[in-house]
Amino acid sequence: LPASMYTEIQRERPDGGNILTHPDYIDGNPDLIKPKKLLNPVKASKSHQELHRELLMNHKRGLGVESKPELQRVLEHRRRDLLIKQKKEEEEAKKLQSPFEKELLKRHQRLDQLEKEQEKQEDQAPEFIKVKENLRRTSTVTGDEKTA
C-alpha cells in the first residue's frame, strides 16, 4: 500500500482499533515542544530519489533490474577485461622495476646468449673434429686412471 493510503486507513480507524499507541504529549501542555521525526539522509539525497523513481518506472514497465541490452552488457564485459589486463601489466612492471631484479634479468639474458653462441659453434664444427675431441677426452681419462 502506498504511504498516502496507509495514513488514510489510520485516520479512518477508531481509537479502540488502532494498534499503535498515541504519545501522551499530543493532548498535553501546548507550551511543550513537540518532537519532529528525523530525516533519513539517504532517502533525502537526490541520487537516492532518482534511483528509486527509476526503479519504480522499470517495475511498472515490467523491466527487471538486470535487463540491459546485450550490446551494452558485452561492451561492459570487454571494458572490465581490459581494465583487469591493464592492472596485471602494471603490477608486473612494478615487480620488475627494482634495480636488483633488473640486473638479475640482464645477467640471465647474457648467460642465455652465451649458451646459444656455444651451441652454434659446436653445431658448425665438422663431425670428425667432434669425434676427435671425444677420443681425446676418453684417452686422457683412461691415461689418468692408469697412472693412479
UniProtKB/TrEMBL annotation:
<dbReference type="GO" id="GO:0005634">
    <property type="term" value="C:nucleus"/>
</dbReference>
<dbReference type="GO" id="GO:0001725">
    <property type="term" value="C:stress fiber"/>
</dbReference>
<keyword id="KW-0966">Cell projection</keyword>
<dbReference type="InterPro" id="IPR009533">
    <property type="entry name" value="FAM107"/>
</dbReference>
<keyword id="KW-0206">Cytoskeleton</keyword>
<protein>
    <recommendedName>
        <fullName>Actin-associated protein FAM107A</fullName>
    </recommendedName>
</protein>
<keyword id="KW-0341">Growth regulation</keyword>
<keyword id="KW-0472">Membrane</keyword>
<dbReference type="GO" id="GO:0005925">
    <property type="term" value="C:focal adhesion"/>
</dbReference>
<keyword id="KW-0175">Coiled coil</keyword>
<dbReference type="GO" id="GO:0030041">
    <property type="term" value="P:actin filament polymerization"/>
</dbReference>
<feature type="region of interest" description="Disordered">
    <location>
        <begin position="109"/>
        <end position="148"/>
    </location>
</feature>
<dbReference type="GO" id="GO:0005886">
    <property type="term" value="C:plasma membrane"/>
</dbReference>
<keyword id="KW-0965">Cell junction</keyword>
<dbReference type="GO" id="GO:0032956">
    <property type="term" value="P:regulation of actin cytoskeleton organization"/>
</dbReference>
<keyword id="KW-1003">Cell membrane</keyword>
<dbReference type="GO" id="GO:0051017">
    <property type="term" value="P:actin filament bundle assembly"/>
</dbReference>
<keyword id="KW-0346">Stress response</keyword>
<dbReference type="GO" id="GO:0003779">
    <property type="term" value="F:actin binding"/>
</dbReference>
<dbReference type="GO" id="GO:0043005">
    <property type="term" value="C:neuron projection"/>
</dbReference>
<feature type="compositionally biased region" description="Basic and acidic residues">
    <location>
        <begin position="109"/>
        <end position="136"/>
    </location>
</feature>
<dbReference type="GO" id="GO:0045202">
    <property type="term" value="C:synapse"/>
</dbReference>
<keyword id="KW-0770">Synapse</keyword>
<keyword id="KW-0539">Nucleus</keyword>
<keyword id="KW-0009">Actin-binding</keyword>
<keyword id="KW-0131">Cell cycle</keyword>
<comment type="function">
    <text>Stress-inducible actin-binding protein that plays a role in synaptic and cognitive functions by modulating actin filamentous (F-actin) dynamics. Mediates polymerization of globular actin to F-actin. Also binds to, stabilizes and bundles F-actin. Involved in synaptic function by regulating neurite outgrowth in an actin-dependent manner and for the acquisition of hippocampus-dependent cognitive function, such as learning and long-term memory.</text>
</comment>
<keyword id="KW-0963">Cytoplasm</keyword>
<dbReference type="Pfam" id="PF06625">
    <property type="entry name" value="DUF1151"/>
</dbReference>
